[in-house]
Amino acid sequence: MVLLSSSACRRLGLGISLVLLPIFAISAVVATQRAPPSFVDERRLPLTEAEAEAKRKAEEQALEKAKQEERRLAAEAEAKRKAEEQALEKAKQEERRLAAEAEAKRKAEEQALEKAKQEERRLAAEAAEAKRKAEEQAQEKAKQEERRLATEAAEAKRKAEEQAQEKAKQEERRLATEADAKRKAEEQAQEKAKQEERRQQAAVVAPTIAAGGAAARSVAECGNDKIAAQAIPGGRFKIEIEAPCRANQSFVIQYGQFVFQRQFDTAGRGTAIVDLFQGKDPPLSLQFADGKRQSVSPEAVDLRGLSKVAVVWQAAVNLDLHAYEYSTLPGTKGHVWVRSPSSADTALAETQSTKRGRGFLSTSDDGRGSGDKVEVYTFWHHDEQQSGVVATALDYESRGDQPGGDVCGSGPQASVAFETILITPFGRVSRERGSIAAAPCGVQLSGNNRFMEDAVPDISAKR
């Protein structure tokens, strides 16, 4: 259905009027050409066939012309509508183009702003990283200087102590020489007096010889010491000795350059656990009071997947090794030390279940025995672990947090020398010697002043 505007309707009415006007004119002409009636009759006479036909044709022509006009006007209206639609579509296209340009401009501005922000962040990160590295370098330099001074102080003190000890030994040797000369003179005088007494006591010589023979047999039996050794989890070696003739005697375990003293019980049984914190290369042997030595092979010990860090010292004081697994806080799970040592079985089970390495205090020492003292932390690695650190610290437990007496100031145990050994799963061994600097007496110690974080190397959890 075509709808026409008001102006189109007016034009259409005018066209119809123009078409009908000739028809009316023809009707008038036909009426005037008829012969006047012979009489006057107000009723109108019917048209002739020619008139009716002419009228019909005129009306058809007028109607056709009106239809043509109507179609023309409708075509004009449709053309105008299409033109208006085209103009509207063109306007919308222009509007979309301008919107697209505005959007592109906005995105370009956002990209430029984001790029500027990224550059700003990059520069800030570079500045922060440079500052951090500079601070770390400064701190490391300060620590190195502190360690150097501490080492120099410890070395100077050691040399002074060695000189004093050497002087004391010389004096002791002089006095011993004089005492020995005096003793020999007294023995010679006594020997003459005893010769007669021995002659008179000849009757009791046989029992004395018999007793001496029993003693000789007892010593001979010590040649049959029963020594059993077996590997135990955590890179350790358990040695069990049965030697009844050595009851209450001490024996020595020599592992590389370190010497550890142990004791037989009243039945002559001795047990020792050797922690292979230097690996299996250093020689391992036992030495008994009568001078007998026995080599022991640690080849059966499994060190695969293990790291160990050890602290060795000689002074008769107690040092405690602390391990903080994955930066754990003191006193929480993962803080391993003598009062929370964990165990080989627990550490291995947690490593396998969590796929994160765990460790335990495999050897502890309170510093009361003779020979070298050692504490060892052993860490089980997991093959799939890619990160993580076990931090360490060393505590001079005998000194505590408020030093006094021999362990402070210029006391004989104010400064303690020690050595650290780190062995990795690949068998690489690193050593470092250090010294705990003397602390003033009565001064409260806390933080790194007591728990020395730089004294012992950390362990990387990644193999």
In short:
With 463 residues, the protein is an alpha+beta fold. It has helices at residues 6-33, 49-200, 205-221, 344-354; strands at residues 226-232, 236-242, 250-255, 258-263, 269-275, 284-287, 293-295, 306-313, 319-325, 335-336, 358-363, 373-380, 389-396, 416-423, 429-436, 451-452, 459-460.
Please give a structural write-up:
The protein is an alpha+beta fold. Among the domains are: 124-190; 224-295, Sandwich (Immunoglobulin-like); 306-460, Lipoxygenase-1 (Sandwich), CATH 2.60.60. Helices cover 45% and strands 21% of the residues. It contains four helices and 17 strands. It has helices spanning 6-33, 49-200, 205-221, 344-354; strands at residues 226-232, 236-242, 250-255, 258-263, 269-275, 284-287, 293-295, 306-313, 319-325, 335-336, 358-363, 373-380, 389-396, 416-423, 429-436, 451-452, 459-460. The strands form four sheets. Strands 11-12-8-14-15 form a five-stranded antiparallel beta sheet. Strands 9, 10, 13, 16 and 17 form a five-stranded antiparallel beta sheet that branches. The protein has a four-stranded antiparallel beta sheet with strand order 4-3-6-7, with no helix packed on it. A hairpin with a 2-residue loop joins strand 3 and strand 4 (258-263). Helix 1 runs antiparallel to helix 2 (49-200). The two termini are 87 Å apart. The model is unreliable at 29-34 and 194-220 (pLDDT under 50).
